[in-house]
Specification:
about 475 residues, FAD/NAD(P)-binding domain, Polyamine Oxidase, Chain A, domain 2, seven-stranded mixed β-sheet, 16 helices, about 35% helix, binds flavin-adenine dinucleotide
Amino acid sequence: MHTSVNVVVVGAGAAGLAAAAQFNELGLSCQVIEAQNRVGGRVRTLFHGNGRAVDLGAQMINADMRSVLDLARTGSLHCSVVPNSGQDLCVIANKVFPRDEFIDHDTVDMVLEARLDRVYGPSSDVRFFDCLTTWFRTVGFRKPFRTQQNSRDASVLRMSVADVLRMLPLSTHDKQLARTQFCEQYGVAAECLNALAVKQAFQSYQSDRPDLEFHFPEGMEKITDQLAGQLSFPPKLNARVERVSCVGQRVEVVTGADIWLCDFVVIAVPPPAASKISFVIEESKALRDLLGSFQPGSVIKTTLEFRSAFWRLHGWSGRISFTDPMGLEVVDTSFDDSSPPRLTAFLGGPKAAEWASLNSDHRIAKLLDLLALALGDEARTPKSFEEALWVEGSVCGGGYNSSVRVEGVHNAAQKLREWTGRVRFAGAELDTAFAGYVEGAIRNGRAVAAEIAHTLHANGKPHLAHER
Ligand SMILES: Cc1cc2nc3c(=O)[nH]c(=O)nc-3n(C[C@H](O)[C@H](O)[C@H](O)COP(=O)(O)OP(=O)(O)OC[C@H]3O[C@@H](n4cnc5c(N)ncnc54)[C@H](O)[C@@H]3O)c2cc1C
């Protein structure tokens, strides 16, 4: 069956829904096609019988993430502050230390102390990332980059984050902690991450605030539900797009059962998932290289409810970085209401893939042992726990987001963002202000929709109803 619309949006995650809502608002007919049986993509909330919500995917935002906050305001969602007081801890070689013992104060203080202390207080995560960003901006990095570029030696374009960390003026323990942070954040080992791409991702975080400021007791899914509620036509679910072909002035979008004809298609799926779609378009080789530059990650998110926030009685914040297993970070995710206090563990990278092959009992026993090592035996007896494995990434891309592999095109995100023609790309990974966040997905989806609508209106394209 052929259906004709102005625009087809592939993927009903935050980016696809935001794009489709924008098309509808701008008077264009649009159909969203989604592979899964639900909308939201990497935003997913589990609702317990007791009414409590657990975010299995995205959860936290900051005060600069205006698109999410505006949707929260429209939906009258309560915004709870993510707890962040007390001593952060780290566990290195089975020993527990205060986290801030391992900050390289010389480097950080030189450039950033005044600003960081004013804005963040002693937040070591932010300090580390800012330290690294600063280092990337130094002449020491740019100079060889230019020289190498001139001599057409691509080695610098293929430096990994592990290579860069080796060159940073940090102690061994700092470097281990840095590696664990990268592993958790990107879902792959530092050896696999293209350093220049990570630099671009840093630069695309257009906020002076930490990313974990607020969350919603009712769940982040209420945000994507708000977007879905703005659509004129319900998304077509359980329909995986297999082929996209340019046919004359139109685009044919093919699922297992249907064919859609449209003026433009927006591919709002993570690049590793997009690489599984067959594109019959000009420059399909260049597109394959860009999409193939991204690698899926792995992350396991485990939220544990406790009877009391016992860690606070010791003066601890509940934030813990572990270097073994590499990629394990823990955060206090309690809400400011009467619900039981929570800790959430995020295990990213190769260890997440390894743990995913264990059975759930074995996995949780390992996690509780590690929590007990850091916080004492009270950590062994959570009231309940909920796990989410974002490891198999056939449609979600795996991990929080996909990242550029060392040998990939370092500015693949920019190139996909700027891809012109009737096939366009959108998604969290491609945003210029909040890449890798729900905010970025919404912003990017809306931006792509506004551009396409402008082109269609400029060409005098009339509104096209769904036509069969
Ligand atoms: C565990 C976890 C924790 C996170 N925590 C946070 C957080 O605290 N704060 C934050 O801002 N962000 C967080 N993120 C990241 C955030 O969830 C994502 O960046 C964002 O949701 C991505 O939105 P998107 O629309 O770009 O992609 P997606 O949400 O991945 O949506 C893409 C959609 O496309 C569909 N699809 C894929 N292939 C096809 C196909 N061939 N045909 C049809 N449909 C297809 C998929 O099923 C999916 O629904 C987290 C992510 C995870 C996994």
